[in-house]
Design a protein that fits this description.
Two copies of one chain form a homodimer. In chain A, β1 and β2 form a beta hairpin. Chain A has six helices and two strands, in the order ααααββαα. Helix content of chain A is 52%, strand content 6%. The two termini of chain A are 33 Å apart. Chain A is elongated. With 165 residues, chain A is mostly helical. In chain A, strands 1-2 form a two-stranded antiparallel ribbon. Chains A and B meet through α1, α2, α3, α5 and α6 of A and α1, α2, α3, α5 and α6 of B. The structure holds a DNA duplex (23 and 23 nucleotides).
Chain lengths: 165, 165
DNA sequence: TATTGTTATACTCTATAACTATA
DNA sequence: TATAGTTATAGAGTATAACAATA
């Protein structure tokens, strides 16, 4: 997104046209889903700028690091990534030497994933960058507020409810 | 996402393989960005299921309803949708008879957008569904917690900070 | 028969750039 | 020269389905 609407501050009161930027969101402004999405977008672009890392890659590295030998299906379930879409992501990490994929001798359908030394090093580096970035972006929140936010978010997405009405 | 990992409850303790679903997220679990994204995904699919409405459409209708005569650039800035990507979305709404688009006589470059009666009716209906859905999904939170969440989210994404480190 | 992984495909979302018409 | 809108294109993200190997 190149043109973010965050320029109100240092602007010399541009001549208001029919549609100035003081325009309102209308009822959208009352929807939690909208603000959740919007807040998550604040973080999203920087994930990608961080060393060309795509959406799932940090997640995959983190999970494999924490669960050596985990298989692809399990990783996908944790990250809500479809098995079919996971294949290329892991191909990518394997080809970069960050992960190793081998047939699980206990169940030859499964691929046993482990992180390499290079993968662990890269994960560490990326996590440090992300942490620093998050600290920057959450500067307006107190420590207590950040804890509250994390708690509320977890309680939302750790729900079993999958309403369809 | 067909296979969500929300099935722990009624399952008769499946034989644990090398990689059971009690696997951990690792350091990912400490990142606010991850939990924001994850929580926003809880809401996202249902937006789309609601009458085949795509990502931006509810937002566009809501903004045009609140700001009759607004132009496309302004709508795009409010929703962080690129001007080029907005065209087809508005085409869609116009072709469905939900919006009207006309040349602004004061500035013939601009397109003046207004919502139709059908558009207003549909917006009202969709908003009611979304509100109901949100109430469902936020059932675990008290009213006070919802207010807190909304406040924290707004403070995150209403930031002027766009860190690049 | 069910599960793991793979391939293919299609659709949405996002990003970039070139172009027009107006200002 | 700058802005509003349009068109085209390419890349990610996501969803669906068919298939092989294995259980």
């Amino acid at each position: 997104m190149l043109e973010s609407p965050h320029h109100q501050h240092c602007m010399p009161a541009k001549k208001p046209t029919t549609t100035d930027k003081r325009a309102s969101l209308g009822p959208l402004d009352t929807l939690i889903g909208y603000h959740l999405r919007r807040a998550s977008l604040v973080f999203y672009p920087d994930y990608r700028k961080t060393k060309g890392v795509r959406q799932g890659l940090v997640g995959i590295l983190s999970i494999v690091a924490a669960n050596p030998g985990i298989n692809q299906i399990s990783v996908g379930k944790l990250l809500l990534i479809d098995a079919g879409n996971l294949v290329e992501l892991i191909d990518d990490l394997v080809s970069k030497g960050l992960l190793e994929r081998s047939v699980d001798p206990m169940d030859r359908r499964s691929r046993s994933l482990t992180i390499t030394a290079a993968g662990a090093a890269q994960l560490k580096e990326i996590l440090e960058r992300i942490k620093k970035m998050e600290k920057n972006m959450l500067g307006k929140l107190t420590t207590r507020e950040r804890e509250t936010l994390l708690d509320l978010l977890k309680r939302i997405h750790t729900s079993d409810v999958s309403p369809n009405a």
